[in-house]
Specification:
Elements (H helix, E strand, L loop, with lengths): L6 H50 L11 E4 L5 E3 L2 E12 L2 E10 L11 H7 L2 E9 L4
Antiparallel strand pairs: 1-3, 2-3, 3-4, 4-5
Length: about 140
């Protein structure tokens, strides 16, 4: 009667362990990246919403609310050491102004002061946005 494991059994066991550890490692990497993206998205959404609220509290004729594309003069805004670029677009509809604020960060591509919303969306960098309407006060 033989005691112990043979070379084949040990090799099969090691192969199974290697496959399981490889899958666990990949799962950990995906989980860490997802968590980092979620943090960036939360910070970006918060920055965009804060800027929208600031713009909504501005005078209806403020230059920052003129139709077109605007970038924040304080760009980049550092949040936990990570740079975010804030920009917004304003369009007029009837008697209201439609504002969309974007906050972009380095994700798959480098964020910067973009020339338009289309350039931002095509860049591949991460971004969050917030949208609202402003009516003139009487």
């Amino acid at each position: 009667m033989k005691r112990g494991f043979g070379l084949v059994e040990v090799m099969v066991a090691l192969a199974i362990i290697a496959v399981v550890l490889s899958a666990a490692t990949r799962l950990s990497v995906v989980s860490i990246r997802s968590g980092a993206y979620a943090d960036s998205l939360t910070q970006g959404a918060s920055l965009a919403h804060s800027r929208l609220q600031l713009l909504k509290s501005s005078d209806f004729n403020d230059p920052a609310l003129h139709p077109g594309w605007h970038t924040d003069s304080l760009n980049p805004t550092l949040v936990d050491g990570k740079p975010y670029y804030v920009a917004w677009t304003v369009s007029e509809r009837d008697t209201v102004k439609d504002i969309t604020v974007y906050a972009a960060w380095n994700d798959r591509a480098a964020a910067k002061n973009f020339a338009s919303a289309e350039a931002l969306k095509e860049s591949g960098c991460g971004y969050a946005w917030s949208r609202g309407l402003i009516e003139p006060t009487e």
